[in-house]
Write a structure and sequence with these properties.
Blueprint (H helix, E strand, L loop, with lengths): L4 E4 L8 E5 L26 E4 L7 E14 L8 E6 L8 E4 L4 E7 L27 E4 L20 E6 L6 E7 L5 H6 L3 E7 L1 H4 L9 E11 L5 E2 L18 E4 L2 E2 L2 E5 L2 E8 L6 E5 L5 E6 L2 E9 L2 E3 L4 E7 L7 E6 L2 E9 L26 E11 L5 E6 L17 E8 L5 E5 L4 E8 L2 H7 L21 E4 L3 E8 L5 E7 L2 H5 L3 E6 L7 H8 L1
Bound molecules: CU-O-CU linkage and copper (II) ion (2 copies).
The site of CU-O-CU linkage (C2O) has 10 residues, from strand 8 and strand 32.
């Protein structure tokens, strides 16, 4: 008889039990902390140069990355864990790219035919008729053409590959890539299918931020492990519908190791922090109470560094931060998530003098004026409950995935999207293709809205926190709040998606296609008459 462990919906609505594990999971307190050095993902290397798709006179680097099953030591005292990844380990290789310099990546599906995590075949797109080991890669935050964006239905089976083109016409930023296969995306990412994609530019280089060995990626996520070190993904208890609305692990993993440590020098470091969790919101701080400076958001540098003692990151969000260890030589500082340990920094003496700087002005950001928005879209976030009060699915604007496109902004136009969150959860909403700015958040009365369609505000207008007031691609739509963003739909015409980045929500209908449509051809008769 197996003991059933309840996994608590830890970060948001307290006490709601959201899933069960069929076997006892590993108690993280039994794992020795800070015994594995923090791994640094390798840098992806091109295999050569190839003609760019739109312009064959242009030669761009060509990479090939395979999706594979691997066995990886996640902790010194655990047997190797079966993972799925890009390349040879999870996280996959980091892409080092530059603004304006395009690249080709061939993403090859070399996964085994069988999935090792519990597929819910009742979810749209994950029917039994579909191959189990579907994959399609998406670079989160990339301004990529639609046929290179990793549309969820563009998945392919083992033995197949796709070559995607990333033009990189965007400013320096911290992007990441991950699987996006319809209906099993949460499982593939949980299995390890993600990595970083950094875009750099001359303007950022000129700032002389810490770089080289002093610039360190921290890809942070939570997992449940079985006693034997294998991944545990909780299920509902209904074998026909194993989907659970959220997954929270108690083992914190950074760059592929559980509770690692890093030897650092007493000087400034730049950390590219990514929350790659399925559902956990991170509240990061340093155990010695030390402050740090956030210099960038999802889509690049902030106008000025923002001093923080705590960083809140929803799934999918990134923070570019500077930590100055110069006063901390000899200290062991723990990176905390709330009151839980994540990893340790062992501060040794500086081996050379620190010439890096954190300028007080980073990159100007023009606020997009609300007055130029051609449209405001009210978009309700809704949780569908069963009679028993269990979550059945989450919907964007009450509309499931397969319904016709309802959001169809015109290329280069500016729109305001207003997320009306009627639920008790915070939903990190992500739009593909674009970057946006947060306008504000405001509390409202959800019951009145859901019963009468009346939007009554009950709180003041709150501007974004300073560390959110840059370019974003993912925004927290907090519970019982209206969150407004302003977006210019630049780059490409075509089909993209927007979705919640809590992966369990995304896989159960909290995702919608959207179209960027071409601007109507100017009507010559009309323009001449307006001139006359
Ligand atoms: Cu992180 Cu649809 O993406
Ligand atoms: Cu994305
Ligand atoms: Cu959500």
């Amino acid at each position: 008889m197996t003991r059933r462990t309840f996994v608590r919906h830890a970060s948001l609505t307290a006490l709601a039990c959201r899933g069960i594990s069929a076997v006892p999971t590993l108690n993280p307190n039994t794992l020795a902390k800070f015994v594995d050095p923090l791994p640094i993902p390798t840098i992806a290397k091109p295999l050569g140069m190839r003609a760019a798709p739109q312009d064959s006179s242009l030669r761009v680097p060509y990479f090939r990355v395979a999706m594979r099953q691997v066995e990886q030591k996640v902790h010194r005292d655990l047997p190797a864990t079966r993972l799925w990844c890009y390349g040879t380990s999870s996280p996959g290789p980091t892409f080092e790219t530059r603004t304006g310099q395009g690249l080709l990546i061939e993403w090859a599906n070399e996964l085994p035919e069988k999935h090792f995590l519990p597929i819910d075949h009742s979810l749209h797109g994950a029917e039994r008729s579909k191959p189990e080991s579907r994959g399609v890669a998406h670079v989160h935050g990339a301004k990529a053409p639609p046929d290179s964006d990793g549309y969820p239905e563009d998945w392919y089976a083992p033995g197949k590959s796709r070559t995607y083109f990333y033009p990189n016409h965007q400013e320096a930023c911290t992007l990441w890539y991950h699987d996006h296969a319809m209906g099993i995306n949460r499982l593939n990412i949980y299995a390890g299918m993600f990595g970083l994609f950094l875009v750099r530019d001359d303007m950022e280089d000129a700032l002389h931020l810490p770089h080289g060995q002093f610039e360190i990626p921290l890809v942070i996520y939570d997992r449940l492990l079985k006693q034997d070190g294998q991944l545990e993904y909780p299920v509902s208890g209904d074998p026909e519908k194993p989907w659970v609305p959220e997954v929270f692990g108690d083992v914190m993993v950074v760059n592929g190791k559980a509770f690692p440590f890093a030897d650092v020098e007493a000087r400034k470091y730049r950390f590219r922090v990514l929350n790659a969790s399925n559902g956990r919101f991170l509240h990061l701080s340093l155990s010695n109470g030390q402050r740090f400076q956030q210099i960038g958001t999802d889509q690049g540098l902030l106008p000025a560094p923002v001093p923080l003692d705590r960083s809140l990151l929803a799934p999918g969000e990134r923070a570019d931060v500077i930590v100055d260890f110069s006063g901390a030589s000899g200290q062991h500082i723990v990176l905390m998530n709330d009151s839980f340990q994540v990893m340790q920094f062992r501060v040794g003496p500086a081996k050379s003098s620190d010439h890096s700087v954190v300028p007080s002005v980073l990159r100007p950001i023009m606020r997009i004026p609300e007055s130029i928005a051609v449209k405001t879209r009210p978009l309700a976030l809704i949780e569908n409950m069963s009679m028993k009060g269990e979550s059945k699915s989450m919907l964007l604007n009450g509309t499931p995935w397969h319904m016709p496109v309802t959001e169809n902004p015109t290329l280069d136009s500016v729109e305001i999207w207003s997320f009306i969150n009627t639920t008790d959860d915070s939903h990190p909403i992500h739009l593909h293709l674009v970057r946006f700015q947060i306008l504000d958040r405001r509390r409202f009365e959800p019951f009145l809205y859901q019963t009468k369609g009346e939007l009554r505000y009950t709180g003041p207008i709150t501007p974004p926190a300073p560390e959110e007031a840059g370019w974003k691609d993912t925004v927290r739509a907090d519970p019982r709040m209206v969150t407004r963003i302003i977006v210019r739909f630049e780059g490409f015409v075509g089909r993209y998606v927007w979705h919640c980045h809590v992966l369990e929500h995304e896989d159960n209908e909290m995702m919608r296609p959207y179209d960027v449509i071409p601007a109507a051809a100017p009507n010559p008769a009309q323009s001449s008459s307006s001139l006359g």
